[in-house]
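pls read this protein.

:::
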Amino acid sequence: MNGDELNPAAVAKPVEDVQGDGRWMSQHIRFVQECKDAEPDVLFVGDSMVQLMQQYEIWREFFSPLHALNFGIGGDTTCNVLWRLQNGELENIRPKVVVLWVGTNNYEHTAEQVAGGIVAIGQELISRLPKAKIVVLGLLPRGERPNALREKNTAVNGFLRSWLPRLGQAQFLDVSREYVHSDGTINPRDMFDFLHLTASGYRTMAKPLSDLLLQILEETPEERRASLV
Protein backbone atom coordinates (compact mmCIF):
# COMPACT_ATOMS: atom_id res chain seq x y z
CA MET A 1 0.00 0.00 0.00
CA ASN A 2 1.43 3.33 -1.02
CA GLY A 3 1.83 6.17 1.46
CA ASP A 4 -1.15 8.51 1.49
CA GLU A 5 1.04 11.43 0.50
CA LEU A 6 1.66 9.69 -2.82
CA ASN A 7 -1.96 8.76 -3.38
CA PRO A 8 -4.25 11.36 -5.01
CA ALA A 9 -7.32 9.38 -3.90
CA ALA A 10 -6.31 9.96 -0.27
CA VAL A 11 -6.02 13.75 -0.54
CA ALA A 12 -8.92 15.55 1.12
CA LYS A 13 -10.67 18.15 -1.03
CA PRO A 14 -14.17 19.62 -1.27
CA VAL A 15 -16.27 19.43 -4.42
CA GLU A 16 -15.72 22.32 -6.80
CA ASP A 17 -18.97 24.24 -7.27
CA VAL A 18 -19.00 23.91 -11.06
CA GLN A 19 -22.80 24.25 -11.27
CA GLY A 20 -22.83 27.45 -9.26
CA ASP A 21 -25.65 26.57 -6.86
CA GLY A 22 -23.58 25.60 -3.81
CA ARG A 23 -25.60 22.45 -3.17
CA TRP A 24 -22.68 20.26 -2.08
CA MET A 25 -21.44 22.71 0.52
CA SER A 26 -24.99 23.29 1.73
CA GLN A 27 -25.40 19.56 2.33
CA HIS A 28 -22.10 19.42 4.16
CA ILE A 29 -23.10 22.34 6.40
CA ARG A 30 -26.44 20.65 7.11
CA PHE A 31 -24.62 17.50 8.21
CA VAL A 32 -22.35 19.52 10.50
CA GLN A 33 -25.44 21.12 12.04
CA GLU A 34 -27.06 17.71 12.54
CA CYS A 35 -24.03 16.64 14.58
CA LYS A 36 -24.87 19.25 17.19
CA ASP A 37 -28.14 17.60 18.18
CA ALA A 38 -27.99 13.98 17.03
CA GLU A 39 -26.78 11.02 19.07
CA PRO A 40 -26.43 8.28 16.45
CA ASP A 41 -25.32 4.75 17.23
CA VAL A 42 -24.61 4.19 13.53
CA LEU A 43 -23.28 6.71 11.02
CA PHE A 44 -23.51 6.05 7.28
CA VAL A 45 -21.13 8.10 5.13
CA GLY A 46 -20.37 7.96 1.42
CA ASP A 47 -21.72 8.78 -2.02
CA SER A 48 -25.13 8.36 -3.70
CA MET A 49 -25.26 4.67 -2.76
CA VAL A 50 -25.54 5.84 0.85
CA GLN A 51 -27.63 8.94 0.15
CA LEU A 52 -30.37 7.10 -1.75
CA MET A 53 -30.84 4.45 0.95
CA GLN A 54 -33.10 6.89 2.80
CA GLN A 55 -35.54 6.91 -0.10
CA TYR A 56 -36.46 3.27 0.38
CA GLU A 57 -38.35 1.25 2.96
CA ILE A 58 -35.20 -0.66 3.92
CA TRP A 59 -33.91 2.46 5.68
CA ARG A 60 -36.97 2.66 7.92
CA GLU A 61 -37.10 -1.11 8.37
CA PHE A 62 -33.45 -1.94 9.06
CA PHE A 63 -31.46 1.18 9.89
CA SER A 64 -33.61 3.89 11.47
CA PRO A 65 -34.28 1.63 14.47
CA LEU A 66 -30.51 1.53 15.05
CA HIS A 67 -30.44 5.34 15.56
CA ALA A 68 -28.67 5.88 12.24
CA LEU A 69 -27.56 9.08 10.54
CA ASN A 70 -27.09 9.26 6.77
CA PHE A 71 -24.26 11.50 5.53
CA GLY A 72 -24.29 10.45 1.88
CA ILE A 73 -23.79 12.91 -0.99
CA GLY A 74 -24.24 11.86 -4.61
CA GLY A 75 -21.11 12.06 -6.75
CA ASP A 76 -18.65 12.07 -3.85
CA THR A 77 -15.21 10.54 -4.21
CA THR A 78 -12.91 9.33 -1.47
CA CYS A 79 -11.28 12.79 -1.50
CA ASN A 80 -14.62 14.52 -0.87
CA VAL A 81 -15.65 12.21 1.98
CA LEU A 82 -12.26 12.58 3.64
CA TRP A 83 -12.57 16.38 3.49
CA ARG A 84 -16.07 16.30 4.97
CA LEU A 85 -14.96 14.15 7.89
CA GLN A 86 -12.01 16.44 8.56
CA ASN A 87 -14.23 19.52 8.47
CA GLY A 88 -16.95 19.03 11.03
CA GLU A 89 -19.02 15.97 10.16
CA LEU A 90 -17.69 14.01 13.13
CA GLU A 91 -17.87 16.81 15.69
CA ASN A 92 -19.97 16.17 18.81
CA ILE A 93 -21.08 12.66 17.79
CA ARG A 94 -19.80 9.31 19.03
CA PRO A 95 -21.36 6.58 16.90
CA LYS A 96 -20.57 3.00 17.84
CA VAL A 97 -20.34 1.98 14.18
CA VAL A 98 -19.53 3.88 10.99
CA VAL A 99 -20.61 2.39 7.65
CA LEU A 100 -18.43 3.63 4.80
CA TRP A 101 -19.47 3.18 1.16
CA VAL A 102 -17.52 5.20 -1.39
CA GLY A 103 -15.10 4.80 -4.29
CA THR A 104 -17.11 4.06 -7.43
CA ASN A 105 -16.87 7.73 -8.49
CA ASN A 106 -13.05 7.79 -8.43
CA TYR A 107 -12.82 7.44 -12.21
CA GLU A 108 -9.37 9.00 -12.59
CA HIS A 109 -7.69 6.84 -9.97
CA THR A 110 -6.30 3.32 -10.19
CA ALA A 111 -7.84 0.49 -8.20
CA GLU A 112 -4.90 0.55 -5.79
CA GLN A 113 -5.30 4.31 -5.30
CA VAL A 114 -9.05 4.03 -4.70
CA ALA A 115 -8.57 1.30 -2.10
CA GLY A 116 -5.82 3.39 -0.50
CA GLY A 117 -8.20 6.35 -0.35
CA ILE A 118 -10.84 4.21 1.37
CA VAL A 119 -8.26 2.95 3.87
CA ALA A 120 -7.20 6.57 4.51
CA ILE A 121 -10.82 7.40 5.39
CA GLY A 122 -10.86 4.40 7.71
CA GLN A 123 -7.71 5.66 9.41
CA GLU A 124 -9.28 9.11 9.80
CA LEU A 125 -12.40 7.59 11.37
CA ILE A 126 -10.37 5.54 13.82
CA SER A 127 -8.27 8.56 14.74
CA ARG A 128 -11.33 10.68 15.49
CA LEU A 129 -13.58 7.89 16.83
CA PRO A 130 -11.17 5.48 18.53
CA LYS A 131 -13.97 3.43 20.12
CA ALA A 132 -16.02 3.00 16.95
CA LYS A 133 -16.08 -0.02 14.67
CA ILE A 134 -15.85 0.61 10.92
CA VAL A 135 -17.81 -1.36 8.31
CA VAL A 136 -16.56 -0.83 4.76
CA LEU A 137 -18.93 -1.92 2.02
CA GLY A 138 -17.41 -3.32 -1.13
CA LEU A 139 -17.92 -1.51 -4.42
CA LEU A 140 -20.74 -2.93 -6.52
CA PRO A 141 -20.46 -3.94 -10.17
CA ARG A 142 -21.67 -1.36 -12.66
CA GLY A 143 -22.81 -1.46 -16.28
CA GLU A 144 -25.23 -4.01 -17.74
CA ARG A 145 -22.40 -6.19 -19.05
CA PRO A 146 -18.74 -6.75 -18.09
CA ASN A 147 -16.64 -3.63 -18.63
CA ALA A 148 -13.44 -1.92 -17.44
CA LEU A 149 -15.04 -0.06 -14.52
CA ARG A 150 -16.52 -3.29 -13.23
CA GLU A 151 -13.09 -4.87 -13.33
CA LYS A 152 -11.61 -1.93 -11.46
CA ASN A 153 -14.26 -2.09 -8.72
CA THR A 154 -13.55 -5.80 -8.32
CA ALA A 155 -9.85 -5.03 -8.00
CA VAL A 156 -10.59 -2.34 -5.39
CA ASN A 157 -12.50 -4.91 -3.36
CA GLY A 158 -9.55 -7.28 -3.58
CA PHE A 159 -7.19 -4.69 -2.15
CA LEU A 160 -9.66 -3.81 0.62
CA ARG A 161 -10.05 -7.44 1.60
CA SER A 162 -6.28 -7.61 2.02
CA TRP A 163 -5.61 -4.21 3.61
CA LEU A 164 -8.54 -3.49 5.94
CA PRO A 165 -7.64 -6.12 8.57
CA ARG A 166 -4.53 -4.04 9.33
CA LEU A 167 -6.73 -1.29 10.75
CA GLY A 168 -7.98 -3.57 13.51
CA GLN A 169 -11.35 -1.87 13.97
CA ALA A 170 -12.54 -2.30 10.37
CA GLN A 171 -14.62 -5.06 8.79
CA PHE A 172 -15.25 -5.58 5.09
CA LEU A 173 -18.66 -6.57 3.71
CA ASP A 174 -18.83 -7.43 0.03
CA VAL A 175 -22.17 -8.40 -1.55
CA SER A 176 -21.16 -7.51 -5.12
CA ARG A 177 -21.54 -11.05 -6.45
CA GLU A 178 -25.24 -11.07 -5.59
CA TYR A 179 -25.98 -8.68 -8.47
CA VAL A 180 -24.27 -10.43 -11.38
CA HIS A 181 -26.04 -13.26 -13.20
CA SER A 182 -24.27 -16.30 -14.60
CA ASP A 183 -24.10 -14.69 -18.06
CA GLY A 184 -22.36 -11.61 -16.61
CA THR A 185 -25.35 -9.27 -16.86
CA ILE A 186 -27.01 -7.09 -14.23
CA ASN A 187 -30.80 -6.96 -14.05
CA PRO A 188 -32.45 -3.50 -14.10
CA ARG A 189 -34.77 -4.79 -11.39
CA ASP A 190 -31.72 -4.60 -9.11
CA MET A 191 -30.05 -1.51 -10.61
CA PHE A 192 -32.39 0.75 -12.54
CA ASP A 193 -29.53 2.46 -14.40
CA PHE A 194 -27.00 -0.36 -13.95
CA LEU A 195 -25.32 1.60 -11.15
CA HIS A 196 -27.87 2.78 -8.57
CA LEU A 197 -29.95 0.27 -6.65
CA THR A 198 -33.70 -0.25 -6.81
CA ALA A 199 -35.79 -1.17 -3.77
CA SER A 200 -35.10 -4.87 -4.35
CA GLY A 201 -31.43 -4.14 -5.01
CA TYR A 202 -31.09 -2.38 -1.67
CA ARG A 203 -32.88 -5.22 0.08
CA THR A 204 -30.18 -7.61 -1.15
CA MET A 205 -27.49 -5.69 0.73
CA ALA A 206 -29.60 -4.46 3.65
CA LYS A 207 -30.15 -7.83 5.33
CA PRO A 208 -26.47 -8.89 5.59
CA LEU A 209 -25.47 -5.36 6.59
CA SER A 210 -28.20 -5.18 9.22
CA ASP A 211 -27.17 -8.58 10.61
CA LEU A 212 -23.55 -7.41 10.88
CA LEU A 213 -24.49 -4.13 12.55
CA LEU A 214 -26.67 -5.90 15.10
CA GLN A 215 -23.82 -8.31 15.80
CA ILE A 216 -21.39 -5.44 16.37
CA LEU A 217 -23.81 -3.48 18.55
CA GLU A 218 -24.49 -6.56 20.65
CA GLU A 219 -20.77 -6.77 21.43
CA THR A 220 -21.49 -4.21 24.15
CA PRO A 221 -24.33 -5.91 26.07
CA GLU A 222 -23.93 -3.66 29.12
CA GLU A 223 -24.61 -0.59 26.98
CA ARG A 224 -27.49 -2.38 25.28
CA ARG A 225 -29.09 -3.24 28.64
CA ALA A 226 -28.58 0.28 29.92
CA SER A 227 -30.39 1.73 26.92
CA LEU A 228 -33.42 -0.44 27.66
CA VAL A 229 -33.79 0.69 31.27
Remarks:
- The domain at 23-218 is CATH 3.40.50.1110 (Rossmann fold).
- The chain has eight helices and five strands.
